[in-house]
Amino acid sequence: MSFRTVCCVTGVGDANDALSKVLQLCQKTNSHLSVLVIGVTPQPVAYDYGTMSDSGWAEDFAAGNVEVRQRVEAVEKTTTTGRYFCRC
């Protein structure tokens, strides 16, 4: 038994156009689709005397997490066909 899996990496700012093309490819080749949604958060500020709590960075981090979750939900709506779907 042979398995085919297509891995698609997408970011929070990407449109669904490329994702729909990957879906078409998967349908044509009867492949499974694995999607990785990534987001980048800046590093916390480091000072000479060590890392200190920075509420601005924490807010940016939380906002980045919200953006990633929103993108995951958009990908789920686009890719869920009722067959073999797993959210990690």
Number of helices: 2
The termini sit apart by 25 Å
Mean pLDDT: 79
Strand order of the largest sheet: 1-2
The protein's oligomeric status is: single chain
> Which structural class should the secondary elements be placed in?
alpha+beta
Question: How large is the radius of gyration?
Answer: 18 Å
Main beta sheet strand tally, sense and closure: 2 strands, parallel
Residue share in helix: 40-55%
Strand content: 15-25%
Structure description:
The chain is of the alpha+beta class and 88 residues long. The chain has one domain (5-79). 44% of the residues lie in helices and 20% in strands. It contains two helices and four strands; from the N terminus they run βαβββα. The protein has helices at 16-29, 55-79; strands at 5-11, 32-38, 46-47, 50-51. The chain has a two-stranded parallel sheet with strand order 1-2. Strands 3-4 form a two-stranded antiparallel sheet. α1 packs across α2 (55-79). The radius of gyration is 18 Å and the shape is elongated. 5% of the residues are buried. Mean pLDDT is 79; it is low at 82-88.
